[in-house]
Amino acid sequence: MKHAHVKEAAEALFNEQRNPFGAFSLGSETHHAVTIPDAVRRCRWIAVDINASAFGLFFVSPSPELARLVPCFDSDYPGTAAATRVISGANGEEMVRHTRTSTAPRWWADDGTPGSEQIFQNLAWSERMAPLAPGTNGIGFPVHADRGHCGVVVFLGMEIALPEDALYEIHARCFSLFAAVARIRPSDAGRTRSISKRELECLKLTANGNTSEEIARLLKLSVHTANQYLTQSTQKLNAVNRNQAVAKALRLGLIE
Amino acid sequence: MSSPAAQLQSDTLGSRLASRGDLTSFFMQLAAEIGADSYMLVAIVHDQDRNDARIVSSNWIFDAIELIGKRLIANLAQGPLTAAPGIRPTALVAAQAPDAGGLLTGEEAHLLDVLGHAEIYSLRLNIGRRRLFALFSAAEAGKIDQPALMKAQLKCCYALSNIPQLIAAAAMQDPLSDRERECLLWVSEGKTTDEVALILGVSSNTVNSYITHAIQKFAASNRAMAIATAIRSGII
After folding, report:
1. Which of A157, B153, B155, B226 would bridge with B215, disulfide CB 3.0–4.6 Å?
2. Could you say which of 2.60.40.10, 3.30.450.80, 3.40.50.2300, 3.100.10.10 is the CATH number of the domain covering B4-170?
3. ipTM above 0.90?
């Protein structure tokens, strides 16, 4: 793919809508409803700006047991790129562990040419990692959003150009993109709706250390009803007991 | 606004953090670069139903912290004007605060103004799953450079990512031993004492004692509360 050509085309199309500090004026924009195609388009702008040939957005599962990157979309949207399948496999484990504890970008260079590392080596704050997809060069930006959502925006390409002073702006744009995507992620919306207010109230009191008897007294319910609410919410969260239900509700951001 | 030489300095300071003192010099330099007079790095601790601020590092004068109070600082840090990375931040201007959002009473706003916090920006910092808040303030409204502030926000995220233990210790968020943390993690995944014992290859009495210690360290009343406390502070 001719990068210069793509860049020109994109600039011709979108110039009116984006300024050099595009993401830095997103304050209100991110509150608008966004669709996945919108998000893909925004991600493509970022990719064009750093001369990347491919990109992908991945979620990091909230469960500590599952160390996998869960794909949301990539540059072949609505299809799936071959690289995405590799990244969402065992290769992503290191990135998942990194993203849970750090926000610093990670890059890799594995295209076999000696010069490719130089692009990244001068970048402040970011370090090298094992290649997410073998035979490629790329960089992954850890991103976080409200309600405990956590993910990575990945850019691939042989000719990525990322000047040091652009790093912050690119990462900031990844953050605001992810915040928009996390808000519309359909799987969670369905789950949140099905748990009633009363059930969440009981879960929250459980998280604060109250027993069923105390919850019953606080909410003026019978102990039996309080227990029933807790059992129902445990089932809805697909948890095996109350402890796991509390943990899941907190990790999903259903309770604070 | 900031010169290239000054930028280099906060980058260098930020990449070599090793102590609380380094943290202070990094934030002082960063504040100077963006035109802010004061900074405060805050961790929010959930205590039952209310939030409390735990100040990790700050150059606010002692009186300001005492007079304003931890509760109000917690509210400022995670108030409606708090900006996540990538979102253009909005300043809380003390002089206009009583009618804007009702975050402060007139008296509190006046106090902030007098104490040299005429405008305050609150930024959310993501350090992996852990969340901290940075307050940057200036004695005159409009003094802080917004684009520089947004870069500074990511710089803080990067710099603090290098020192997770220091941050956890400073915020007193992680009193657990490795084994206690591991047990609590498995319990939060719905495992019973016997299952955890099997996974870790120790006796169930040992597992119970680890968990009891964890509950005591958090001053929690039961397992569910200990798990909740650990997740809220980002330990598991």
Report:
1. B226
2. 3.30.450.80
3. no
